[in-house]
Amino acid sequence: MTKSLLNFKYLTFDVVGTLIDFEAGMKDCLAGIAAEAGTTVDGEAALALYREARTSPDAGLFPDDMVRVYAIIAPKLGLPAGTQYGERLRDSAASWSGFPDSRDALARLSKRYKLIAMTNARRWAFTHFSRELGDPFFAGFTTDDTGVEKPNPAFFHQVFDFVERDGGSKDDILHVAQSQYHDIGVSRSLGMTNCWIQRRHAQKGYGGSIEPDKFTQPDFHFRSMVELADAVDAAAKPETVSA
What we know:
Elements: E1 10-13, H1 22-36, H2 43-54, H3 66-77, H4 83-91, H5 102-109, E2 114-118, H6 123-132, E3 139-141, H7 143-146, H8 153-165, E4 173-177, H9 180-189, E5 193-197, E6 220-222, H10 225-236
Parallel strand pairs: 1-2, 1-4, 2-3, 4-5, 5-6
């Protein structure tokens, strides 16, 4: 039986794709490069090519790996070649926006839970993301801290160790994420309770996120962060007792 949303002390979050709209940020940057070159770019096609490039054994840490990725996808999209464009795509991460509901929802949730970021981004990028979101996190784990990317269980175990040092346990954590591949599947295999934020509910396919080998049914399922925050508020609202 799924626990109540009120039974957790910590919410751990995937950041890129769940809280930060990296797909829009990437597409905007590529569209700008295309416009300067006198052409256009299909955003969804770009995301599919990006997703494929990121699965390469040669992939580096995100978002620094965008320089390598751009060199691979640019000729397929009819975009100009040049390291400067890959660096521009990488550096655009510093200006990516949060989803419209992220900042307010996190502020609401932080009144009840300790919020912990678990991002496959490097620390320099996470610093920008956290600022964009209002710096709501009790703690933040990046690939610079863990040395590995999700879905590697070692990333999660470092967070478990941190929570234990804080006086909690894995059972006190609700893991919140949009990526089935990076988060929902592995969190289930590790015995965590999870919450899927289906950001692409109105779009087909997986966009820029790697497609999982199989779909994992989450413990909680919402289409946005505000839906999660509303559900927590509803669960906490005292029931009206009839006279």
